Amino acid sequence: MERILFVIAGVVVLASLAAGVWWTPYALLLTAFVGLNLILGGVADWCPMMAILRRLGVKRAAEIACER
């Protein structure tokens, strides 16, 4: 889950930066939102995307390690 979360965050940040440069500066608010969610994930070990990935059935690294 953690690797998928980083990939999704990176894609959204790059897409919102591109939209901010070529479309509207308000798109940079999405970059700020992703950054805040990454901070929340680091501090509280939870963010909204983690809940979405969990519902999709993605397992965390610790859960996969326990299954081995």
Please tally the β strands and state the result.
Answer: 0
Number of domains: 1
Order of helices and strands: HHHH
Mean pLDDT: 89
N→C terminal distance: 17 Å
Short description:
This protein has 68 residues and is mainly alpha-helical.
If you had to describe this structure to a student in words, what would you say it looks like?
The chain is an all-alpha fold and 68 residues long. It has one domain. Helices cover 78% and strands 0% of the residues. The chain has 4 helices and no strands. The protein has helices spanning 2-22, 28-44, 48-55, 61-67. The longest helix has 21 residues, at 2-22. The chain is elongated and about 45 Å long. Pfam families: YgaP-like_TM. Keywords: Membrane, Transmembrane, Transmembrane helix. This is Inner membrane protein YgaP-like transmembrane domain-containing protein. The chain crosses the membrane at residues 28-53. Residues 2-54 form the Inner membrane protein YgaP-like transmembrane domain.
